[in-house]
Amino acid sequence: MKTRKMVALTFVYILSVMLLIPQNAYAMHIMEGFLPMNWAGIWFALIIPFIFLGLRSIQKTININPSLKMLLGLAGAFAFVLSSLKIPSVTGSCSHPTGVGLGAIMFGPMTMSVLGCIILIFQAVLLAHGGITTLGANTFSMGVVGPIVSYAVFRIARKSGAPLGWSVFLAAALGDLLTYLTTSLQLALAFPDPSGGILASLIKFMGVFAVTQVPLAISEGILTVVVFNVLMNY
Amino acid sequence: MADYILEANNLSYTYPDGTQALKELCLKIPRGQKTAILGSNGAGKSTLFLHLNGILKPKSGTVKFNGKDVAYGRKSLLELRKNVGIVFQDPDSQLFSASVYQEISFGPLNLGLAEKTVRGRVEQAMTATGINELKDKPTHMLSYGQKKRVTIADILAMEPQVLICDEPTAWLDPKHAKQTLQLFDEISQNGTTVILSTHDVDLAYSWADYVFIVSDGRVIGEGTPDKVFSDDNLIRIADLEKPWLVDVYDLLVKKGFLAVNTDLPRNKEDLYNLMLKK
Amino acid sequence: MADYILEANNLSYTYPDGTQALKELCLKIPRGQKTAILGSNGAGKSTLFLHLNGILKPKSGTVKFNGKDVAYGRKSLLELRKNVGIVFQDPDSQLFSASVYQEISFGPLNLGLAEKTVRGRVEQAMTATGINELKDKPTHMLSYGQKKRVTIADILAMEPQVLICDEPTAWLDPKHAKQTLQLFDEISQNGTTVILSTHDVDLAYSWADYVFIVSDGRVIGEGTPDKVFSDDNLIRIADLEKPWLVDVYDLLVKKGFLAVNTDLPRNKEDLYNLMLKK
Amino acid sequence: MLNIDGFAYTNSLRQVHPLEKAAFAFITMFMCIGFSLPVISGLVIVLMAFAIVGPARIPIKVYFRLMSLPFSFLLIGVVTIAVSITTKGSGAGWLAGITISGITVGITYSGIIYAIGLFLKSLGAVSCLYFLSLTTPAVEMTAVMRKLKFPSLFIELTDLIYRFIFVMLATAEEIHTSQSSRWGYASMKNSMKSLGQLTAALFVKALHRSQTLYTALSSRGYTGQLNVLTPEYTVSVNNIIIIAVIESALTITAILLEMGYIG
């Protein structure tokens, strides 16, 4: 077990030194054309109900309060801009989608699925980050799973009496981690290891992403707490 | 030999989108003087300033501070930024802290000064800019003029040798504009070199010791205000206007109400006195 | 009897944070004229404007449009907003679309006009403001002055009876400020009542037919520019300055270079001619 | 940072109907992914490179830099897929592998072939995306979405977000500049604090901006719908014929490949 870990770690270490340090987090979203047609379609089908519910709940609020549209527009732009900032992390600076956790806590997970989807479109089109055929898969991980986890963790942590700071940290960090777990799972499902199957593939992808994403999730958690604290003082 | 605190030699800079903002720009800022940099919108003033404290690195050419070439290593950049402070144009996009006190302490704290020293500097900067009573106010609740003062205090608290101010009086009403200029006079009297950019010719004419005219990424004229603003051609090329004091003076001389060769009046009182003498 | 297009009677307004922005303010805007509203930062100019097209509802007092009290129902508000258009100070918070064409089409579409009419109006507004060549550019690539023009076209496309412009020349350099004022002259000649707010006394003096001085939420003076700006006391209370033309004129009269009782010069040429006549 | 956006407005295919450009990009992309044939992927890469550098006149240097952007994800992904893990030990078809305590990590011949195919396919799809995003401004893409009857709320939000990305980005840059010139990123600890303040300030400014925007739009009659008109484009029969010819050629090549007549 120990040696297996070591082999995996060495493998991952060499890869990360080679590829990850000098660049930013393109490892985050699944790239254009990477998923086979059928999987691209399945993930699209899976996000449609969430987008639909999200749009319906937004429309309901807008009917009562038309200014929400501007607020969501600005919030979406805010989240996009954050994702393009470099955040300091143990493995160097990485650009990263903060704001998903923050948004989920503030606007609720359904709204975030709509905003997440739009932000991902712009990341694909303006930054070549992610893609259109993989939009379904990426929206599912970043716009559906991430926000739901963040929102649920925040609620549970607050209910169980955790201090606000820790609740925010856990919500942001876990939402982040689950996003990457989902991405790994999506890749593993599409590309099962020819001999080891889906499970082996999942372990491979999780191993690769862990190097960058665990420290990033922690950094992002801390950053979200810092932001929350500053916001509380406003 | 004159003593220059900042020099730009053949500075060229092109933004990633292809806009060529500076084209072999040369200028030398005299130490301890009040310098105004004049030019229309988009002439390259702000880009120049970002070079003077090392935020932007020139594509070609050099910046000298205190006679030495600026190196773009981490340490020397920090040293430069400690000594050359910039107050940016739009206070709204510059203030980022929750309270005025926190905002002003940001710079000195980052310098790694002891808390006591920081407190002292913040107090001093607030007194100098006359914003003591705003100490605990959230920055986004301030009026435009107050925000402007906070951004100046931000930089003063770092005690730079050079204070650069981008369009300090835009959007300020006459009263607050006057107060701001008085503040710069005081800062200058305390030995700091003050540089400001503006397209308000009247302001530059009355306030500055030395003026640079920037147009299309180049310095196209420089000198003492009376010299620069007597050059009709220069002013026209730079898309500026003549200061009204100069205009009126010219008119009076033309009409024979004033003798030629008198020193140009620098402010309303000067003009008044000139006319009384006649 | 004079014909007033907009009237404010004893308008009072207090912001939720407790700032009392308007204090029983009264004013009557003459139809078809170029009106300037002068006051220092925070005098209440912007708050007044938001009342004039019904965005804010006064705590007490009334607004009249074309002699009729404004009702605050949905339909009458839309009617008011169709006729009274505001160009806000910061173009970045008025422009909501990246496409200039889409942006300008928004207002007329809200009026329920047919697509063809809207397209015609968009073209017309772009021509009037001289931004035809910006049609294919995104708003985020425009300069400040260009954005300002787009925001004016936004409102022109709605063909309002009154065009209100908040600080139209702030941050513009002399050349662009002059162009903007010329644009307002043209709009005014087409029969639209143009109102603008400013703290630039020279601009107001040369441009306006009628001037209101606002200070601390009240109108403290009004009249034709020459009358208003001859009142030293008024100008001082409002924290403004005298236009330099008036200043110079006073000086010349005092020195006996000009006869008293001549009409005040409204621009440089006027002054020059007056002096030639003498 | 957003130079793709800049080219979208200045490229030589700017005036072509956005629907034509979108159709060309997406049909080609679907062929590339759908057929999943390395030869087709290669053809698509060459075709799009030609279209981007040729008719659209994007500088070739820019094209190569953009194509290198997704390489890191692609390499990580592809290498991860090429590497196999098994408990059965290495056998036939394995090129290399290490076995430690019963678990074999290594590379198989079929894995490499598969990885190369995936690499080309993805790069082909990315080329198509680049063609679209380098020639078609986002506002025109949403105009196409309007034509295709996407939910209007979705489109309105997309347009708003696009517009304010640039406003917020400028603000973020200004705050960042102001912070760095005051030693805000002089150390790791400073950086975290500064970035937190930047984020919070940006958020507060976003809230404030949304209010002023609402005020400004209300004064122009906004009551819940952001209706706008888009400029009209003329459909070019020539372009449609060109697209049809290219796509048919690709399809025929693919079918011939699949049936084994060529390749």
UniProtKB/TrEMBL annotation, chains B, C:
Any Pfam family: ABC_tran
Any one biological process term the GO annotation gives: cobalt ion transport
Function: Probably part of an ABC transporter complex. Responsible for energy coupling to the transport system. Part of an ABC transporter complex. Responsible for energy coupling to the transport system.
Xref: CDD domains: ABC_cobalt_CbiO_domain1
SUPFAM superfamilies referenced in this protein's UniProt entry, alphabetically: P-loop containing nucleoside triphosphate hydrolases (SSF52540)
GO MF term set: ATP binding; ATP hydrolysis activity; ATPase-coupled transmembrane transporter activity
Cellular localization per UniProt: Cell membrane
Name the record gives this protein: ABC transporter ATP-binding protein
Record-level GO cellular component terms: ATP-binding cassette (ABC) transporter complex
Keyword entries, A-Z: ATP-binding, Cell membrane, Membrane, Nucleotide-binding, Translocase, Transport
Family per similarity comment: Belongs to the ABC transporter superfamily.
Superkingdom per UniProt: Bacteria
Entries under SMART domains matching the protein: AAA
Principal location: membrane
Membrane topology, from the record: Peripheral membrane protein
InterPro entries in the record: AAA+_ATPase, ABC_transporter-like_ATP-bd, ABC_transporter-like_CS, ABC_transpr_CbiO/EcfA_su, Co_trans_ATP-bd, ECF_ABC_transporter_ATP-bd, P-loop_NTPase
Automatic annotation (TrEMBL), chain D:
InterPro entries named in the record: ABC/ECF_trnsptr_transmembrane (IPR003339), Cobalt_transport_CbiQ (IPR052770), ECF_CbiQ (IPR012809)
Keywords: Cell membrane, Membrane, Transmembrane, Transmembrane helix
Membrane topology of this protein: Multi-pass membrane protein
Subcellular location: Cell membrane
Cellular component aspect of the GO annotation: ATP-binding cassette (ABC) transporter complex
Principal location class: membrane
Transmembrane segments: 22-50, 62-87, 240-262
GO term, biological process aspect, one: cobalt ion transport
Domain of life: Bacteria
Protein name: Cobalt/nickel transport system permease protein
Record organism: Desulfotruncus arcticus DSM 17038
Lineage: Bacteria, Bacillati, Bacillota, Clostridia, Eubacteriales
